[in-house]
Amino acid sequence: MKPIYKKKKFYIPAILIAVLIVFRMILPQILLTQANKYLASFSPTYSLHMEDLDLSIIRGAYSFQEITGKLKDDGKVFLTIKEVDVSIAWREVFRGKIVTDIVTDKVDFLFLKDMSKLNPPSKKEAQDVKETLFPVKVETVDLRRAQIVFEEYPSLDDKSRLRIENINGRITNLTPDEDDQLSSFNLSAALQGKSETVFIGSLNLTKTPMLWDVDVELKDFDMASLNPVLKRNLPLTFTKGRLDLFAEAQNENKVIKGYIKPFIKDIDVVANKEKFVGIKHFGIEILTALGNLILRDSDTKTVATYLDFNYNGAFNISTGQGISEALEHGFGQKLQPGIEDKYHIKK
Fold this sequence. Notes:
14-stranded mixed beta sheet; 14 strands
């Protein structure tokens, strides 16, 4: 009687299993090499690189680890991502749809002082990247522990830069079609690592240029935490003060329009008049004095205003309206905190 390991019924399945194991071991490296080759050359201004790629056949998932984005001209790192996990959305399979969920962990993005260095890819190039890395329609993207740091001046140390930290939330329908054009997002973050900020809005990625709208709420922000930024841009600092801010914006016909509605409590501003230059700084001095006047005479110790703005190649803001609204809030009818619900993109 032949030993069991010499029987065909045993060694043929054993060989197949061994081949599958070897294939499973070498496939990630093959895919990683091909993906990195593509990501190194798809953009003329920057490159992306992944350190590792893992497959989970049972879960129907794959993941990228330690992704880095660099500028090609000077090698500056503008993006790092600890992990991107892509998995089949099994809840949708039973509805007859094959879509994926993406979870990103610890995305760090450097908002460059000169963002023209990150010349965005064309619509076709972006579609090619999407089809290379995410070949199946994306249902949701979850952000965990993301961060945006504003470069401003390259010589500054990292702690002095303006930053939005601990960004968490979800983006849905990131690969829309003509039947379902709108994507939505709901994100929370901490400005300067201190106060929670909420961003809620919609995107229409099927349009060129992309259409979007956003609502922003920032509550109980410590104004003094902005002093390292203000010292580099304006001749004033805050010794104290708390800020609640409400804003909406949208783009339409290549014009960005919206409003901001700040409520400032118990503010104290110190201005260095020796460094005031030009009409803009003079306007800041007037607004500072106005704020102190309202706070001194107001029972609520709060100064608030409403400012419409638009951007069409140049940033325009209605400062005259802002002064009028601040006076009205200080001595007349009070502005109400909250979102006005004025701006929405159309399907």
